[in-house]
Amino acid sequence: VQLQASGGGSVQAGGSLRLSCEVSGNIFNIRFLGWHRQAPGKQRELVARMSTEGGSTYYGDSVKGRFTISRNTAKNTVSLVPLQMNSLKPEDTAVYYCTAVTTVGFWGQGTQVTVSS
To answer: 61-94: string of b/e by CB count within 10 Å (b at 16+)?
Structure first.
């Protein structure tokens, strides 16, 4: 499984950004797709996750009501996993990672999101 994240950038507080992750390879064994983030000096945290079986979602308390994860399967071997981020706050500043779980976890390279006050 390969993951390629894009869409990071800088925005003012209250603004929006849309991250995207292209997931390729053996996507049929993926159980969960998600986004984690890591802010400077802090541990990585789960931001949002979607089950590939049924589509149920989970959001971290700090992003509930502001972030939305979804999935678009464009081809049999490629899925797109957008993360729509609205009402951004300076505390959302972090490196965001796209993740996938089969029987093991896969991480993509991070994309920087910076929110200024």
So the answer is: eebeeebebebeeeeeeebebbbbbeebeeebbb
| Cβ proximity of 14 and 66 under 8 Å | no
Instruction: For residue range 15-57, list pLDDT tens digits in order.
Output: 999 999 999 988 889 999 999 999 999 999 999 999 998 889 9
Question: 3-state DSSP call for residue 90?
Answer: helix
Residue 76 has pLDDT above 70, yes or no: no
